Amino acid sequence: MIRPPAAVDGRRLVAQSAAFGRALRRAGLGVDLGAEIDFARALQVVDIGDRDEVRDAGAAVFVRRRDDRPTYDDVFDRFWRARHRLPPEVQPGDLQPVDQAEAGEPEPGDAALLGDERRAELDDQLRALLPSDEGETEGEADDELVISPDAYSHSEVLRHLEFDRMTPSELRDAERLVDLLEPRLELRRTRRYELHQHGRRLAARAMFRRSLSSGGEIVSWVWQRQRRRPRPIVVICDISGSMERHSRLLLRFIQALSASSAVRTESFVFGTRLTRVTRILRDRDRDRALNRVSEAVNDWAGGTRIGESFREFNLRWARRTLRSSGIVIVVSDGWDRGDPGLVAAETSRLRRSCHRLVWLNPLAGTPGYQPLAAGMRAAYPYIDDFLPAGSVASLERLGEILAGVRAGDVDRSREAAAHVAADGGASAASEAAIAAPRVVSGPSRDPEAAEPLRRA
Amino acid sequence: MSSDLGSTDAIQRAFRERGYIAERSLATAVFLGLQLGRPLLLEGEAGVGKTELAKVLAASLEAPLIRLQCYEGLDVNTAVYEWNYPRQMLEIRLLEARGAAGQANAHDIFGAEFLIKRPLLQALESPGGIAPVLLIDEIDRADEEFEAYLLEILSDFQVTIPEIGTVRADKPPRVILTSNRTREVHDALKRRCLYHWIDFPTAEKEREIVLTRLPAAPAKLARQVVDFVHRLRAADLTKVPGIAETLDWAAALMALGAAELSETIVDETLGVVLKYEEDIRHVKGPAARSYLAEVAGGAVGGAAAGT
Known about the structure:
The complex is a heterodimer. By secondary structure, chain A is of the alpha/beta class. Chain A has 3 domains: 5-130, no CATH class; 189-229, no CATH class; 231-455, von Willebrand factor, type A domain (Rossmann fold). Helices cover 49% and strands 11% of the residues of chain A. Chain A is flat and about 80 Å long. Chain B has 2 domains: 8-80 and 118-198, P-loop containing nucleotide triphosphate hydrolases (Rossmann fold); 203-295. Chain B is 50% helix and 13% strand. Classes of the chains: A alpha/beta, B alpha/beta. Chains A and B meet through helix 2, helix 3, strand 1, helix 10 and helix 14 of A and helix 2, helix 5, helix 9 and strand 9 of B.
């Protein structure tokens, strides 16, 4: 079926394919040698004079996720424009710079390929837009960093710098938190089985296997049970103003957790907008990672928009990060500039797509605290666990929740419902009943839930 | 006769004959997959025709379609092969009865006749000389362990069974993988595939799809339904309707004997298009009325996208 490639110089195609691949790689796409070879082969079977067909062919080979497509198109346009839109095989001069590049001088070679001074400009833009490709092979979604180029001033830089400095005691708290929690994380049963002597299901295959050594006579039972895995943890941190310090502690915690164990973690920060920072936090240099988080986020001065940020999470991330019923931890004081109705609707949706919704609020430690801030009040009925942030007691309580100690004995959302009932907010309570049919409207506060408040 | 799929145009034609309207970029990706012998990974919103493409491809090639639906916990025993334990057990008893158990060795009971072939192993065979089309559906539902297992099959088209050895495909199957992106597919797997993101079609294309699939649909209804759905896709919804929903809706309206959209009938049948309660509440009533006015005025899609 392959058309005779006689008219086309195969070696030149490979060289050009490699040059194009390199241009894409520089723009941040994960292009490997195999893709370049595939593209060279593709050029032999598609109509090489048809620009759109060549574009589509390249897209099928080089693009591996939807979000890469615009970058690809951009590079494609620039790359072939620099070649005066001639079909690749009639460009006699091309081989020269490509060969140079292959001989180990990528910079001058590629400069010649892209052909104009805009290359540097393009590179800078692209570098700014795309995360560095460290750890690219880990295969997670990594490209959804929201970075706005505007809103940047000196005073904000100063704030950024504070963000990654932690006092020794704060560091100790974070480490302590990890030590406390790591061995106790709640396990979720997966749909895979492992042999286990206390399993409850017969492992027929293994049993038959073993019986062969005794001539087909079954002499012992073999059991299996469902394999267990920790639930994924998603942290959504408010990083506006006063929340910074508390969020930092939690981010530290997530950093340590993802580095040290098999738990899948995802982290997001928000002010006026949601930014995914999971990738950045995987940096082995933890201080540098936090530094980069603060660089990545430019909406420090803009206040808080909980509703919009949650909405963004629900639409774009919930299905991808909470698939196996994860635990969501929100860190925020609930001061919100947006519409409380939106906060309520989106929090309710968030709660329905996760296993447990934990909210850490630094103000909740204050004696007699009531969730009066508009955003907090709106979100309140949908929270499973409401805890004060920043105290050791609350960390211990968080530990209990993550360990699932109480997941079975207390009906979900009962605590929150109890809070609301104590609050006297009849309308809020009825909203909760609509959103969560399982609500048991307890007449009084759950005594255990109140305990950390007192200790703090 | 199977169709000639030797060029992008030929693929578009062959698919169209079978009622599948493919964008040119998609046809190019399929063409390259066939030519280079590479699996094709299709991503896109639910209901844009990812699974359907594999069926149409199989029909065009007149090749058998082997489908593997993925789910969490899918393992080698259900996806690739399993030993027929009862038969093996019987065989041992028979050997014993003949007094030959002593001489029997593992080969006697781990032979091909005791092997139960599951989809992936079946796909390596090509009865009648035609390589099958293998559809690995919703790969994002399977877990990482299974994805890792696919690597060997998709790069070399071979399966290693410890007791027998390596089974290699005499003719590599045409492989289509689909994903709804509920999680990111691992890079190692992506590297072995060609990739294509299927977008929602233009209003014009979608109208063509509706009329191809439902030849009895009144032209006016088809236009209104497609324009209305396009308007919905632009709205801020939890789950936007796919092509499958457009077709369902058009069919439902025809069943109700509607010749064109009206406020009442839209409100009554909205559940065919929108599957989330919030979305229905969001659209029903005033929003639906304003969309309807736009659709009736031909402001959306229709004329604009048609040119």
